[in-house]
Write a structure and sequence with these properties.
This protein has 3 helices and 6 strands, in the order H-E-E-H-E-E-E-E-H. It has about 120 residues and is an alpha+beta fold. The strands form 2 sheets. Strands 1-2-6-3 form a 4-stranded antiparallel β-sheet, with helices on one face. Strands 4-5 form a two-stranded antiparallel sheet. A hairpin with a 4-residue loop joins strand 4 and strand 5.
């Protein structure tokens, strides 16, 4: 009985962790590069950091998390009112190490860049 409780704390479910990138900010002179992810509420800061370091090989410096409750909504029908609730979620703000200056978001197409240079 003790072994099952002890081992259940150290389970790993990394490959199935959904992490959705919400926002990213490149590094400036004063602040490091940051990215905001939307993750499952049961994920801890340590699991988020390990996931990004082991699977994506990113140098993570710090992880801050915020828990959000899902919105409660009402839908008015002809005879009654239906209530429902959206899912709870957690936001993780990840600060990267000094080695990452630009996160590389956005796509630069060489044809479009050449046209912009020719127009100027």
């Amino acid at each position: 009985m003790f072994a099952t409780r002890y081992l259940s704390r150290f389970r790993q479910w990394m490959p199935t962790m959904p992490m959705v990138l919400v926002d990213a900010v490149n590094a400036t002179e004063r602040a490091n590069a940051q990215a905001t992810f939307r993750v499952l509420p049961r994920m801890t800061k340590h699991e988020i950091k390990e996931h990004l370091q082991k699977i994506y090989d990113l140098p993570v410096k710090r992880v801050n998390t915020m828990n959000y409750l899902g919105k409660r909504k009402r839908v008015f029908g002809q005879r009654r009112v239906a209530y429902y609730k959206c899912r709870d979620y957690k936001k993780a703000i990840v600060t990267f190490d000094d080695s990452i200056q630009e996160l590389g978001l956005g796509v630069k197409l060489p044809e479009i860049e050449a046209e912009k240079v020719n127009e100027e």
